């Protein structure tokens, strides 16, 4: 038996996926322009990275970008896996594992950023 | 609505192809090709995201480690991979805009022209980005 997912949950996941995708278009453009297109040679040196991330507005945008891209990627992978026709229990486990991995990814990115800004103290 | 699964051999054969069924766009419309391209670029971007996080760990090694990586990232092989990355981002992003809009009932009848139009935008943007990447 394959019960259909609750319509509200499926709809919410789709809305978060679409919304984060549209947000990512803006954030990704900003990220690419700031980090690669206006920088001579296309990549910032270490001192430039520290200075860049030390700006509170930049830091907020980059962290928002990290959360949005991780969430969007997680929902995308989840959608592909759920399309394999998993049982309800397996589907729940997939969602839990992907959710946990997403939290780890965001936490790691935030930790790495704090280390760089803090001068590796 | 619950769906009973038959257990005959035909269904078992079909089940074993389920994993790659969505990859097979032969004989299907333009929309299916867009769906496959969207999923393939999405998977590629997920792999890139993980790789990006791992590579950024080099920042934790301090200036020497990072500046060595920057020198490596400016080699032709890496620049070529950057062009492939930008292509994936453009395909996934622009098709995603189309999917989001049609999912909200905007432009349902204009899907095909929208798809072709966005493909042209993606091609132009890719050419521009490639020139910028190669020119440094």
Name the descriptors.
heterodimer; A: 121 residues; mainly alpha; 4 helices; 0% strand; B: 136 residues; 3 helical TM bundles of succinate and fumarate reductases
Can you tell me the number of structural domains of chain A?
1
Q: Write the element-wise H/E pattern of chain A from the N-terminal end onward.
A: HHHH
Largest sheet of chain B: none
- Kindly provide the name of the CATH class of chain B: Mainly Alpha
Low-confidence stretches of chain B: 8-14
User: How far is the first residue's CA from the last residue's CA of chain B?
Assistant: 57 Å
Largest sheet of chain A: none
Could you please say which CATH topology of chain A applies here? 3 helical TM bundles of succinate and fumarate reductases
The CATH topology assignment of chain B is 3 helical TM bundles of succinate and fumarate reductases
Kindly report the greatest chain-chain contact and the residue count on each side.
Answer: A-B, 36 and 39 residues
Proportion of residues in helical segments of chain A = over 70%
What is the β-strand count of chain A? 0
CATH class of chain A: Mainly Alpha
